[in-house]
Design goal:
It is a single chain. The chain has 256 residues and is mainly alpha-helical. The chain is 48% helix and 8% strand. It has ten helices and five strands. Helix 4 crosses helix 8 and helix 5 packs antiparallel against helix 7. The relative contact order is 0.11.
Amino acid sequence: HLKTELGHIQLQKLKPIHLDDYFTIKRLNGRLDGKEGGLSENTLKKHYVILNSCLKKAVALELIRKNPLAKIKAPRPEKKEALVMSSEEGKKLLKAVEHDKLLYTFIFTLLSSGMRRGEALGLEWHKINFDNNTLKIKSSVLTTKGGSKYEKKVKNDSSKRTIPISEKLSNILKKYKKEQDKNKQFFGDDYNTSKDYVFCKPDGKKYYPGTYNKKFNKALKKAGLNQDYKLHTLRHTFATELLKKGVSIKVVQNLL
């Protein structure tokens, strides 16, 4: 986007009018997927952030005297209200997946811990302390554009955290681990031991992260729940339930 529209303009000759025109064009007809229409304010805000970062760097390096983007108002995405499941809906969802031990444990873990999808997928057994019922979140499994998977550190330093888990979640994880240990015995040397993932294929390898979204969407349909719910809804639901119980916002923020 940026290179096509602005790449021909020399840095010192880049003016606010060029940037204002850029956002106008992208709002009206900025899609690159062959479809008609412009980009959303949310997407344009990302463009703005990238441009602003680049131009601030240029000022710091004294390549330009002023940031021409400073005079252009940043796009303002509309804030959408976060969807939250009720306790009853959570029970319905778990009931719908009780036959699938992996998915049941995965969903119950997200509902009970507030972890992001990637954080749960990066969770390893040695990060869970069953003696004091806590788990450490330090890594995350994400998807790349080409469909491959890779591990990286969590979203930011504040995302590294140790969180308490309930006795019920602890017991569910222990029960699930016994099932996974049976898989290890069955596969023997063919079991992937490069990581001791909690949530993985029967042979220990990672699932493509999007697989969990597909399974979740099917579970929603089976349970007759709102199809607009996403895996991230479980994180919102966890936070909301804690606030309802009188847990302070500061504590909830730290857990998240």
